Amino acid sequence: MSGVPTEALKRVPLFAELTDDEIGQIARLFKVRRFRAGETVIQEGSGGAAFFVIETGEANVFVHSEQKTTLSSGDYFGEIALIDEGTRSASITAASDLVCYGVTFWDFRPLVESNGAIGWKLLQSMTRLFRAARES
Amino acid sequence: MSEAVLLDEAAEVSLFGSKAVGLGQALRDGLPVPPGVALAGPIVEAVASGEEDAIETVTNLVRPLGGPLAVRSSAVDEDGAEASFAGQHLTLLNVPSWEVLTDAVSEIWWSANSDSAITYRQKVGLFTRPSVGVVVQVLLDPESAGVMFTQNPISGADERVIEASWGLGEAVVAGLVIPDHFRVDRSGRILESVPGLKKIAVRTLPEGGTFEDPIAPELQEKLCLDEARVGELNRLAERCEHVYGPARDIEWAIADGTLYLLQCRAVTRAGA
Q1: Which CATH architecture has domain A6-131?
Q2: How far is Cα B166 from Cα A2, in angstroms, rounded to an integer?
Q3: Model's pTM, two decimal places?
Q4: Do A47 and B110 touch (CB under 8 A)?
Q5: Closest alpha carbon within chain B to A101
Q6: Is the ipTM of this structure higher than 0.95?
Q7: What pLDDT is attached to residue B83?
């Protein structure tokens, strides 16, 4: 069965302004992706086109080879790549066997392009995050 | 047009990818390719999405193959003239049975959307939605396997170059051994045979996946092909060139005494 539980997406600041129905449309785009313990999930500096929410397992986050934190069930990463096609700002390695839900840039973009309401709310959320980052 | 077909029915590159269609053409021309199934990009994505109809369609087609299986990507733009995705997309050897095929197909779909594949796409100016077909074949348990160029890829000389080792061809392709090296003229006469150093063979595990099996010392520097086998490979090269055209890069294996063609594509010349 495809799709990520919508509760997991409601915790993502980027999606904070979206209604349940809009969250549901995004949730249906997700596919399950499994990683084995020790496998590199994303690599700092490389291109990226997918956003992931962890279903089960743990993953370690490294920036410049220094471990920063450990992610577990319900945590998420890579959401900015859905929008800017930029490079990954951290490396993430599966600390155990890891099951994630992932959505790609290729699936996300057409939904936003065809739904102005979702696009506007994402823009509002991005602006809020930008303002918070500037003021911190 | 069905999106899941027996390999010998795979004919549209834009649906099934060049690898699947190449193998389908080989089967149609009577070349010795292991039996298999070709899945088009859309049904691969549907399986990765967990769509039950798609999973049932694929399962019903693959079940008669039994197992173990080799599951390979066949990206629509793979091995093209503009950019080669060889190495970017996944091959899963020894998927134990059709029952775990869904996970394998999903893994291959994601390999086309991995960070490394995306980075490569950006680098070669192909930042477009990937479409990945899949080839599912019976996995052989070969005595020996390797690669063959129907024309010398370094010098361009009109001669076959064969590299061979014990077990699965992954040992040669992944550079895990120094393979036996043969040069053969078009009549089948061996011009040169140089034993390699083959300390391991890649073999299948009962629970899935592969392992590196140590080779007995007396076999490590013993040629894994005799003159008759080299002659058989030369005839396979001739048939492949007849079907596909000159200068082919072939993957082959010998299992239960039979020579099989696993892949046939255009030679990429060194420095090209």
Answers
A1: Sandwich (2.60)
A2: 42
A3: 0.83
A4: no
A5: B49
A6: no
A7: 46
